[in-house]
Amino acid sequence: MSRRYGARANGGRSGMRARLAAAAARIMAEEGIDDFALAKRKAARRLGAADTESLPSNDEIEAELRDYLELFQADEHPARVTELRRLALQAMDALERFNPYLIGPVLTGLAGPYTEIDLQLFPESSKDVELFLLDRQIPYDATDERRYTGDRARAVAVISLDWRGVPLRLAVFDPRDERAALKTSLAGRVAARAGIEEVRSLVGAAGSAHSAGR
User: Fold this and answer.
1) Domains of the chain, with CATH numbers?
2) Cα(160)–Cα(38) distance, integer angstroms
3) pLDDT of 207
4) What percent of the chain has pLDDT over 90?
5) For the chain, N or C: smaller number of CB within 10 Å?
């Protein structure tokens, strides 16, 4: 690693911004929080930072989080990510007819101890997913959440369930949205995503690396 965790902190406003980024990263890693905005607010309260101009960007927090995980969770974190990706792939295979994509911390490799698996689905009808679960007697909860394409908001159904002991969230989109640049917030980044074969490659690569390390 090129630098140690939290090494960007120095004096003045930029110092507070760096300390906030490091604190938010630690909160995300230790408390299993995946929401950058929530981690920023918690870090600001703990450090007594009232100046919102000092709040770090998500990219700054993500850089600190990667360093934190590499430094303090070097053994357990890669195994956790690999296992979550393996479970995500199983869910994607089961839901293949709905064109699933993996997004979020499980894909980016920043998954914490309580991270949910997030999938995007693009069925012909949103009801098809619920019928699929009902036919298999899989309990679930459904809510509506906002998603964005550019500055345009739309409500999408988000289905939450337990998948082999891990929380799984299914955001159900219109099939016309499959090629759109989707965001979870108006100011957020376009969510990186991976289809079944890409996730299968990630899982396979991790398995090969594990075998080579024996």
Assistant:
1) 12-72 (no CATH), 76-212 (3.30.460)
2) 20
3) 65
4) 58
5) C
